[in-house]
Amino acid sequence: MQLDQLDQATPEQLKQWEAELANEYQTIVEQKLSLDLTRGKPSPEQLNLSDALDGILKGDYRAQDGTDTRNYGGLDGVPEGKQLGANLMGVSPDNVLVGGNSSLTLMFQVMLTAHQFGLAGPESAWKNEGEVKFLCPVPGYDRHHTVCEQLGIEMIPVPMTENGPDMDKVEDLVKQDSKIKGIWCVPKYSNPTGVVYSDDTVKRIAGLGKIAGANFRVFWDNAYAVHDLVDNPPELACVMSACERQGTEDSVIQFASTSKITHAGAGVAFVNASAANLKGFKQFLGSCTIGPDKVNQIRHSRFLPDRDALLQHMEGHAKLLKPRFAAVLDALDQAFSDNDLGHWQAPKGGYFVSFDTRPGCARETVRLASEAGVKLTPAGATFPYGKDPEDRNIRIAPSVPSVSEVKGAMQVFVICVKLASVRAQLKA
Amino acid sequence: MQLDQLDQATPEQLKQWEAELANEYQTIVEQKLSLDLTRGKPSPEQLNLSDALDGILKGDYRAQDGTDTRNYGGLDGVPEGKQLGANLMGVSPDNVLVGGNSSLTLMFQVMLTAHQFGLAGPESAWKNEGEVKFLCPVPGYDRHHTVCEQLGIEMIPVPMTENGPDMDKVEDLVKQDSKIKGIWCVPKYSNPTGVVYSDDTVKRIAGLGKIAGANFRVFWDNAYAVHDLVDNPPELACVMSACERQGTEDSVIQFASTSKITHAGAGVAFVNASAANLKGFKQFLGSCTIGPDKVNQIRHSRFLPDRDALLQHMEGHAKLLKPRFAAVLDALDQAFSDNDLGHWQAPKGGYFVSFDTRPGCARETVRLASEAGVKLTPAGATFPYGKDPEDRNIRIAPSVPSVSEVKGAMQVFVICVKLASVRAQLKA
To answer: What is the ipTM of this complex?
Structure first.
């Protein structure tokens, strides 16, 4: 069976393919599999790499500056907590604020502050200007979209290219519409496409502050800063340095966390921003916390004392992740390299493989896979409001299952894509 | 020198007292003391009681229900985390949600949800009704006031009695003004008065849900639930049981934390509420976090496995706190029991002694103490907008300094109260 010329196939040929694939599919359904490619989270083996965290303090709860980390106080973290964030993001510790266990919470809080209270005083609050819009490169991260939706911020999708968001479109939109107050970015190993923003993209993102209003903010979610899967990983240009060169330091706010470095639910999250933005954010934080968990900060900084230790630790993750990604990519190559049933790029890091079906086939592929016992992230999830206009994108997350489970799940996936594609063509 | 009849004293007598006190005060100023009675936080010795927390897991990161606490997930906490909150608040674990390290953050988040997003769906959001007001028993906790201020909620002070807030006033106000959407309560060892709400007060608080609108919420900050300083501590009636008897379960939301039980900045916080309120709150939480730090939850539950262990642990705190409180109360008794220069009540638990000067003397007392090297919480801090209309209340927090430091600080305090009182009388 060759599916390389679906558009040219006769109805008879299509029907024959459909029958063969439906038969294959039925065999799989009868196996009653239970596999899951939905969650971008570390496997238990990856979590084991950081089990030395509990007990690492050996009774010494003092931070480097003498702070008793056990007590209340300190909105922005202890010095070694800031240094850990600085090591992770490649920035100055002076511009780092350390939060709790969730960078998503920090992103929500910064957006809430910008929207309702103002990062540069009450008069700078976005809500003062009425309707607020935000640019969302697509496909993107559903949790980012949820933050905007919760706050009533309208999302405008912009397409991703292999160098990052389509910057011509982004710049045009920002110039045309002053209600656009920012853009979500996952600049390295983008969720889900795996794209690393090019140097030119980073420069142009940093330049948005010159063409947008004073309250425009790039939300730079550097979630996969050190999450490489190849030996000579691509380097992401430093957005803050690019901002300094253009005098736009206040226009970008960077986020990161140790969630996919140590224990996903019990890590430390960071904000990197200009002194002015940090001041505005701390004013907000002062109303709703007496400070983050500093004990967990020193646990993490003793576990990962410098950038070398951090990178070495990440090699342990890569070793576990590589064969899982290879299983996904091998299956895709084998099934789709000689036809147009799917498009994807091999990511050099991060947690996902982003797969595009032929138009109108993603939802059906996910449905078929689900009925065959393979859970996939719902089609559309990577788009604002869950609406993929072409119904094409599927996010594959292979980190949690074992290698053989990934292989099994990909066998199912491949058949579901084929079956959905042939059936769509039959209807066309 | 006898100050028992300040109102009847002749100007000459007052001048003589002023000179004597000013002389005494000057001697103290020259000692260049540096003492601090401002912070309601545990001392290092108290924090030491919980140092076994780090390392307590010994590599076993599984919760009782099998959850791998290291990974993402679970908005409301693992079972033993809920049980710890239930043990602390005396409620059912089913109605407990476990948060991060800060109950203040939970209070802010619940108020934000109620105000802007609605605890019972979007149409229940307070902001839909325009202006929002909140009742604040005074003196009270400044951080509660800051939450309201941040959210633009108008605060209406209601006086505290020795049984809790003046419930006649509270009920009248709630009946008269539907814009009043709730009341702050610290029901046990109230901050700062140390009052424990009487059974009748608890019953009437639970009854507010019957006379107020559906969106009225009592914020029940049970911060000192097990923080006793006497052998047969007073019992606080269970507000949730009182609500059940009156069918007002949705009208009260309870908060607590281990902050003043284990490590103040690295503990676990709790919400106790009806299923409907928890549902509304979790809907909000889902937009801004992938879940709380569950590792810290199991650390805490293994350290404090049941209510007996919790109460026994608190005896260690009481042992350290009692002599400090005794030092405060002895100094006050000695100086003011035979005159009307100050009023206070000996608290049976909590972290504070609330002291009322004669009208118009609090600010000056705090200023004098500060210049003599004794830091006190700013006068007015215990009132909404920092405005104590009679300028009388001063919050004394003796937990951090050593016993001899508390004694030294109270010597200064007493002289400052006397000097401020005499000078005020001279001007009168």
So the answer is: 0.97
